[in-house]
Design goal:
With 294 residues, the protein is an alpha/beta fold. It contains 10 helices and 12 strands. It has helices at 5-23, 36-49, 62-70, 85-93, 123-130, 164-174, 192-200, 236-240, 260-269, 272-281, and strands spanning 25-31, 53-59, 76-79, 98-112, 120-122, 155-159, 186-189, 205-210, 219-220, 222-224, 247-255, 284-285. Strands 1, 2, 3, 4, 6, 7, 8, 9, 11 and 12 form a 10-stranded mixed sheet that branches. A two-stranded parallel ribbon has the order 5-10. Strand 6, helix 6 and strand 7 form a beta-alpha-beta unit. Helix 2 (36-49) crosses helix 10 and helix 3 runs parallel beside helix 4.
């Protein structure tokens, strides 16, 4: 049976389109919610320069991303903490060799409601607030009265246990001998957006997230290493010069040495273009880089 010219043209277009789809490469990227926005910005900018490459990104927590890598279900796992020994052992037992790539630096910003008059905390005081045996559970112990906060009680907002941010706070703020306080006035949430939402609606609340997340619904506290020492804000400059006491590296993990398009993408992330995107998104680059004025 003969086809009309329009039908032949339609067949050609459909075949060309299906061939283009088949030729496209999709990289899978899972993990840390902390730098989800950065990962999305990287993927968008890279796709603009390489339309044949797409990156499928989901921010599901560091633990979930590393678990996907362990099971060889993902090309790149984003992590806001180093891989744990038990995770590495599980990966190697499954034939996966996790390789670590430093891609940026971050800091944990400590947030309170904008109406809270407090402006800073020491690391020791922050630990007392979150420690299960800590003695600070009232804003009055910092000499402040928080408007519209019943009983002036401190309400804790934290991250869920599969979060690298949760693990890093435990390691750097609480340490090995302390554990998180859990009571009727504490909430563990699954994302940075939820932390901000909880604090934005609750004048009693305090929480922690990656420093790049900006919102006028919350206020960031200055932090000192010890009482009476320098008060430092969570900024890119203070992370790069190591002045801010709750700074941390951000990683991507691959299964062994990256190859092919994964290697190309990761190489671009570590290039000047990729690292300037880090700075533009509000994180600190993995290395010093000179970026065009924004």
């Amino acid at each position: 049976m003969k086809k009309s010219i329009p039908a032949l043209l339609l067949s050609f277009v459909l075949l060309s389109w299906s061939g283009a789809v088949a030729a496209a490469t999709v990289l899978t990227n899972r993990g840390s919610d902390t730098f989800l926005h950065l990962a999305q910005a990287w993927a968008t900018q890279y796709h603009e320069a390489h339309p044949e490459i797409s990156v499928d990104i989901r921010g599901c927590g560091t633990g979930t991303g590393i678990s996907a890598l362990i099971n060889n279900h993902v090309d790149l796992a984003n992590a806001s903490r180093p891989i744990k020994i038990k995770e590495r052992i599980a990966a190697e037992a499954n034939g996966v060799r996790p390789m670590e790539h430093l891609v940026a630096h971050d800091a944990l910003a400590i947030l309170i409601h904008p109406t809270n008059p407090l402006s800073w905390l020491s690391m020791a005081a922050l630990a007392e607030v979150y420690d299960s045996k800590g003695t600070i559970d009232d804003w009055g112990k910092f000499g402040v009265r928080v408007p519209n906060c019943p009983g002036n009680r401190i309400h804790l907002v934290g991250r869920q246990i599969n979060s690298g941010t949760h693990d890093y706070f435990q390691e750097v703020v609480l340490g090995e001998r302390r554990d998180f306080k859990h009571n009727m006035e504490s909430r563990d949430v699954s994302s940075s957006e939820e932390v901000v939402d909880q604090i934005g609606h609750n004048p009693c609340a305090i929480g922690y997230i990656g420093m790049a997340f900006e919102s006028n619904r919350v206020k960031k506290l200055k932090i000192s290493r010890e009482s009476g020492t320098e008060l430092v804000e969570p900024t890119i400059e203070n992370v790069m010069n190591r002045r801010y006491p709750i700074s941390r590296p951000l990683f991507m993990y691959t299964n062994g040495m990256p190859q092919g398009e994964v290697k190309n993408y990761l190489g671009w992330i570590l290039s000047d273009a990729g690292q300037c995107q880090v700075q533009k998104t509000g994180f600190a680059p993995a290395r010093p880089v000179t970026c065009p004025a924004q």
